[in-house]
Inverse folding.
């Protein structure tokens, strides 16, 4: 008998009742998930990865467990282009509670201060204007940023404050959707690396009353929109074929980039990593396609009439995309 944990016959019976584990398979595409509150990004990824029986998957940047909304999940070849989604501008809708400042900037933190709420519309507009454009932002302790190999939120949970350097971010747009005495709904379009809980706290300070987040929802990431996303419950209710049909092709992550299409012979050489001559203007980032529908080859840049390969798909990955059924349009 082997040393270690004792044999549990009930567990063995339960395992047999569940049947053999379904094998994982190579899937290539992007699933737009409407992440539920309380789930970490990795929780959501692992659940969806299991539902799709996908071999390889990753998410495109952490969405706070207290937040809901758009979380693009990448599978197979799409994981090669997840950085484009990480770098993309994001749009959020948030509800702020005014007059109360909390540790961590959200409902979970202890109350640090309470102040009266007393400002007018002009002051609110001025505060939003002051926080629009390129600004300096101090990353919150409740964040996934690393210090000496450990996430800041681990230090925060242990009651340890770590010195952080301000970061330059861009708030492209900051709109007030609703204002009702001690609550404000805002919509913010921001660059990567912007913390909405910090933006909320800074807005509260400019209004002289303090504020913290009580709700946060990501509505867009680059060209991708939450209206095209599916919930975990809805995905779970689909049969396997319909789940797979929800996968968008990997190039949706690069949807804002110009495209270049190559003839069959040129496409094969490009896919092997060779530069190709093209009649295109210089461009820092392009999507490259072969002649067949769905034949996405990868990314590149154009310089002095040369198409210079970036991240490339493998020939089997390209073939899988060509043979994939057409993706439905999600409205």
């Amino acid at each position: 008998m082997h040393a270690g944990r004792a044999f549990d016959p009930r567990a063995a019976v339960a395992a047999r009742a569940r049947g053999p584990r379904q094998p994982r398979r190579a899937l290539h595409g992007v699933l737009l998930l409407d992440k539920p509150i309380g789930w970490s990004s990795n929780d959501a990824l692992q659940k969806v990865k299991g539902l799709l029986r996908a071999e390889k998957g990753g998410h495109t940047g952490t969405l706070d467990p207290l937040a809901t909304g758009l979380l693009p999940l990448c599978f197979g070849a799409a994981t090669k282009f997840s950085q484009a989604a990480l770098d993309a501008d994001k749009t959020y809708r948030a509800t702020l509670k005014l007059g109360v400042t909390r540790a961590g900037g959200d409902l979970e933190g202890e109350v640090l201060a309470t102040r009266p709420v007393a400002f007018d519309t002009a002051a609110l507009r001025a505060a939003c204007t002051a926080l629009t454009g390129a600004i300096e932002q101090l990353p919150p302790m409740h964040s996934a940023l690393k210090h000496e190999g450990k996430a800041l939120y681990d230090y925060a949970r242990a009651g340890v404050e770590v010195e952080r350097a301000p970061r330059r971010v861009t708030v492209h747009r900051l709109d007030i959707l609703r204002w009702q005495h001690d609550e404000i709904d805002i919509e913010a379009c921001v660059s990567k690396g912007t913390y909405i809980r910090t933006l909320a706290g800074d807005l509260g300070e400019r209004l002289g009353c303090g504020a913290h987040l009580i709700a946060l929802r990501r509505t867009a990431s680059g060209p991708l929109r939450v209206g095209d996303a599916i919930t975990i419950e809805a995905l779970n209710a689909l049969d396997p074929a319909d789940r797979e049909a929800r996968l968008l092709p990997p190039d949706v992550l690069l949807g804002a980039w110009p495209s270049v299409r190559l003839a069959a012979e040129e496409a094969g050489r490009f896919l092997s990593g060779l530069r190709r001559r093209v009649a295109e203007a210089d461009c820092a980032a392009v999507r490259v396609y072969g002649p067949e529908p769905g034949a996405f080859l990868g990314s590149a840049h154009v310089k002095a009439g040369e198409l210079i390969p970036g991240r490339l798909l493998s020939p089997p990955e390209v073939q899988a995309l060509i043979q994939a059924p057409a993706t439905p349009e999600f409205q």
User: Anything to note?
Assistant: The two ends are 59 Å apart (CA to CA).
